[in-house]
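Q: Second attempt. The first request was missing the SMILES, so the protein and zinc ion are both included now.
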Amino acid sequence: MEFRGFFRRMTALAMAVLLVFSTVYAQEKNVGETKPEKAKYVFLFIGDGMGLAHVFLTEAYLAQKDGKISNTPLGFAKFPVMGVATTYSASNIITCSSAAATALASGYKANNGTVGIYPADSIPLTQISYKLKELGYKIGIMTSVTIDHATPAGFYAHSKKRGNYFEIAMQLPESGFDFFGGGGFQGTRDKERKDAAEQIYNKVSEYGYTVALGVDEYKAKKSGAGKIILLQDGKKRRDSSLRPVIGRKDGELTLAQVVGSAIDFLYEPDGKGFFIMCEGGQIDWEAHSNNAPGVITETIDFDKAISVAYEFYKQHPEETLIVVTADHETGGLALGREKGYTFDLTVFNDAINGTATEEKNAQNYLTKEVIDTLNKKARIGWSTKSHTGIPVPVFAIGAGSRMFAGQIDNTDIPKNIMKAMDATPLYTDHYYKRKAVFDMDSPITENDIVFLGNSLTEGGKWETYFPDVQKALQKKGGAIRNRGIVGDTFGGIDARLDQILPGHPKKIFFLTGANDVSHNLTADSIANGIINVVRRIKKESPNTKIYLQSLLPINESFKRYRLLTGKTAMFSEINAKLEKMAKEEKVTFINLYPLMLTNGPADLALPASEQVLRPEITRDGLHITQEGYKIWADAIRKYVK
Ligand SMILES: [Zn+2]
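A: Got both inputs this time. The predicted holo structure:
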């Protein structure tokens, strides 16, 4: 692949300098007209298990093969922006692929072994693929392994167990995404169901998907297809992973062909744009086997798939973003072993070229023993047959790519993609700004009382409602601290608990939920999500007294919040669940809800859908006036001390 000469690796420092200059430049440009950078076509490439060592091993091999002590850069490694992403999951420093895929797809950390669900019970997360589809972007999900495997599943499925392939496969057509490609469904081999394949493929066609086996069939069928699934030719291979490079036969489907077909299918000159997630899934598998030649060939193959996207980028440089990263590192791969400085990757030549195998096929040749001998000869070290917890590299080019420089977290990747696409962010701008203010503020301490929640909490002037308490706290160096953020949800609050819990505050008054209702979650999901925050506070700061406050009622007659239409009754339903769960968690529950109803607690006799926020204490049917805050403050006064 050809790259423009000026692309080169940049250190984080150089990037920072560039950022400063470009900000100034942008400001000057703003005086006249300015064309903001906006990504319309986005590629997220995930090299499963591909750590920096895997990339450099491949580059060093390519150089040594030509007799050079150097590195022959892979195409994506020449992208101008480079960063590193931390990969830990909600449950482990060493993540699994499904938890990492969930983070990369949704911006939330998940537990190892789960796909697309929030750590509390089974609350489904909304992946950016769904958000972007809603906004009119075309969506393509592809991989070199099966499409119900962990990484692709992270972008369309929700399951407590990544190994529930059948369940995950059955969710794929429900996504309505436009293009899927790679190996077919592992779920067809479900042991409990003889007709698993039939059920999956029936559902696929019921939901309007055309299945094309091989590129030729894709070309023949694409014009009549609304949504398409591109798999391998031949019924035998249909539901297997794409053939690994070592052992691949001529004419067998490659990841590069899948990406090419996806672009062909999803690109419309006057369309809204597309989001493509493409996984190089077999780098991980080879690394699990500590198979260095396999890692090298699969990484090169992955680079070939990325080069197809790069060709597209060259046609649409202003509107395309390509991000290449990994979900985690696999193998603890090291360039060097035991003692000394010799290092010779040419011992892999025969294995990689397939010339080691006259009679046997190449894959059979690479037995455990042969692999081990080759690793020793080359002097490659492996510390594990599993994953490691080291951060992974991020390479980026195009619109918005600068956001991927420096050290980031894997959850930043989908957030940055949304920002680059100028789409509804996972969190609001206000959220990021206020969170940044909290970061710069003095840290929370044991002498603080924290008010935690959404706009209702943010809108309160808590220190003025309890002046004596504030004075008493200040004597000890503490204070009443407002940690409310407009628009926040239980997920957003969970994501910023690390600003609060390490300080072990004296008390936390917590209220959230209205924004979650507007996001179309069920009452169960919302109550579970809120209680999960409570559980985390208990676990990470056991001496903090927690006061869980009920949701306030709303009043739809103000017609201000379209997304809350018809949801009045949900508020009392959620509160009932919270009250019960708070009791189970042995946490004080403060029921503010009846106090804010039109006629106070007397209105509890009405049907839930008629229990509304008193019109005199609200201007929009959701938020409350100072008079409302007075009722609230009085209700909690005995606890705030
Ligand atoms: Zn793995």
